Amino acid sequence: MTEPNDLSAFWMPFTDNRFFKEHPRMFVAAKGMHYTAAAGHQVLDGTGGLWCVNAGHGREAIVEAIRHTAGQLDFAPTFQLGHPLAFEAASRLSLLMPEGLDRIFFTNSGSESVDSALKIALAYQKARGQGTRTRLIGRERGYHGTGFGGISVGGIVGNRRQFGTLLTGVDHLRHTHDPARNAWSRGQPLHGAELADDLERLVALHGAETIAAVIVEPVAGSTGVLIPPVGYLERLRAICDRHDILLIFDEVITGFGRIGCATGAERLGVTPDIITLAKGLTNAAVPMGAVAVRREVHDTILQSAAPGIELFHGYTYSGHPLAAAAAIATLGIYQSEGLFARAIELEEYWADAIHSLRGARHVIDCRNIGLIGGIELEPRPGAPTKRAMEVFHRAFDAGLLIRVTGDIIALSPPLIIEKPQIDEIVAKIAAILPTVD
Ligand code: PMP
């Protein structure tokens, strides 16, 4: 038996459970740019929760939409039935997507969006008579959530090695991180477009007729802010076109203004065939994800199907009323406050702030795009605890939430951030770095 306030029952995700339960750090409230920690102090949110609270915490319009909908229509199935909010949310979302990607499949998370996108790609190839195209291509250091599809195309060994053989027929491009040529980049690094040619090599190795789709994050977030080199995504798009391979952008992080436009595709000027979304879609107030699909992909699947269900895929909570209501309210805030553009307006100031850490103790690289920043620390040889993890704990206690991955600090504050708060983030990190051995 455990007591209600015992910490042992909750098996926490992606957590050092043994450490946490000895040293619990918790939040009890959130508003605007700040959390309130259980210990009572305010914590400036330098990571938008987990890259997801793009409009800041506790937004009244979202809270009210959820409250109202919960009283009105707590749940309605979307299998063979529907409710207006799901259709409205899909229509509104489709207007933000690049030209042509206007068919929306709803999920409950980024992981589900990724696995849905991979399945849609496979179903499409089959529907158009290219059923030999079953191979999926991911990229080293890609993070695509934790479903079996996502960890198979993903490129994080730690997320793969506990779980057996995963999906078969998957291959990977090399990642684009090249500190020797691209350290201290502001925006897109200059070198590395030719890494996209890895896809030509995989086509030569496996045959284009075996490849269904390639999935990449426009900017890889979870593995430490890896920004695509100038020309890389264009080249990948051209190779996909040449060999009739679908291109999927995983925009779970880059969607909804994170790098200055509704999508990374728009900001970076390259249009994929499928986009996966989650996080900022509801400002994280209710779980929801989505897959935006090129209309031709959608139509091909529908038209090739016998009368009846066209895609044997979905979730009980696809288009859940509370999530749909939250999404509609969130998209309204993004529009009325011009929040996507804010990441561009603040980009220069943000870049100067991030790069002011060049020269600080342990810092070996800084990089940025939109309102994302990466600060890479020199790994501590042989020590069990990463330097960045120590910075994370000290920052929390000093009133700043950051995200760390390996020895990289990743920053992605809500888009409502003001310049003094940018200064505060950087000042706190600058003060902590010298205290870490
Ligand atoms: N894809 C990307 C690019 C992500 O960054 C994440 C989460 N950080 C996911 C997928 C998975 O999302 P979720 O945790 O909501 O399943």
Write the layout of secondary structure elements.
Blueprint: H1 17-22, E1 27-31, E2 34-37, E3 42-45, H2 48-51, H3 60-72, H4 84-96, E4 103-107, H5 110-127, E5 135-139, H6 148-153, H7 157-160, E6 170-173, H8 179-182, H9 198-206, E7 211-216, H10 232-243, E8 246-250, H11 264-268, E9 274-277, E10 289-293, H12 295-304, H13 321-336, H14 339-345, H15 347-355, E11 363-369, E12 372-377, H16 387-397, E13 400-401, E14 403-405, E15 408-411, H17 419-432
Parallel strand pairs: 3-13, 5-6, 5-7, 7-8, 8-9
Antiparallel strand pairs: 1-2, 2-3, 4-10, 9-10, 11-12, 12-15, 14-15
Helix pairs in contact: 3-13, 4-13, 5-12, 15-17
This protein binds 4'-deoxy-4'-aminopyridoxal-5'-phosphate.
4'-deoxy-4'-aminopyridoxal-5'-phosphate is lined by residues 109-111, 114, 143-145, 217, 221-222, 250, 252-253, 278.
The gist of it:
The chain is built from 17 helices and 15 strands.
CATH fold type of the largest domain = Aspartate Aminotransferase, domain 2
Strand arrangement in the largest pleated sheet: 4-10-9-8-7-5-6
The secondary structure category is alpha/beta
Give the domain tally.
Answer: 2
**CATH H level, superfamily name of the largest domain:** Type I PLP-dependent aspartate aminotransferase-like (Major domain)
Number of helices: 17
Please estimate the helix content.
Answer: 25-40%
Mean pLDDT: 97
Shape annotation: globular
The end-to-end span amounts to 41 Å
User: Are there runs of 5+ residues with pLDDT below 50, and where?
Assistant: none
Number of strands: 15
Cα-based radius of gyration, to the nearest Å: 22 Å
Proportion of strand residues:
15-25%
CATH class call of the largest domain: Alpha Beta
